[in-house]
# Entry
Amino acid sequence: MVRTIDILLFDDVEVLDFAGPFEVFSVAGARPGPPAFQVRTVALNPGPVTARNGLSVNPTHVVGAAPIADLVVAPGGYGTRREIHNPAMLAHLRAANAVAKMMLSVCTGSLLFARAGLLTGLAATTHAGAMDELRALGTDFQVRPDARVVDNGRVITSAGISAGIDMALHVVGRLLGQAVAEETAAYMQYDWTLRHVDRPTVD
Amino acid sequence: MSPKRVGFLIYPAMQALDLVGPMDAFSAVTLADGKGRPAEPD
# Structure
């Protein structure tokens, strides 16, 4: 079974926020045997995206050109401060939330989730320097400032930048088993030591 | 201390995180004398 994964890109997206999960899901999906994941980079408009620090990236898909993926990843970065006011981005996130099996955010990607109303009744985290910004976006969700990954079941958020790697490995473990997650981290030569995941629904 | 320029060699089919990891680390550096990029939450 191939699961599709859309990683949203926009100008001023933080590079490691999207490249960390991109690498984890791509590596996990490329193991011997039938592919487990098809990872796509998706933007609202055609053409390259200029990520943080000037990195130019060519998304593989435009929103609407393909069915919404099974898993949708919202990275963070300064661009989120603009995108939380972008009706097209918010509409896409709401549409994705209605059909995707999992909604994942990295860093300040959770600001997008909050603004789109995806966090109602849930717990979430974000970059350590953006907790107040997240709190300011609503009172109908709980902010967990000490968490690296918050797993609500279908909606999962992670802390700043590198935490997206831990979140993606956690998701690989959930979907394909812990052995595959371990194998993925080992292939990446990633020291996967920060493994604690907050699970509010079962706490 | 003035900021140093860091160049990255990229090519088709390179490993994405091989580029992005060091790029993010160098980009996030704040110089002690305040002449570098200020620390900002992403």
About this structure: The mean pLDDT of chain A is 95. The radius of gyration of chain A is 15 Å.
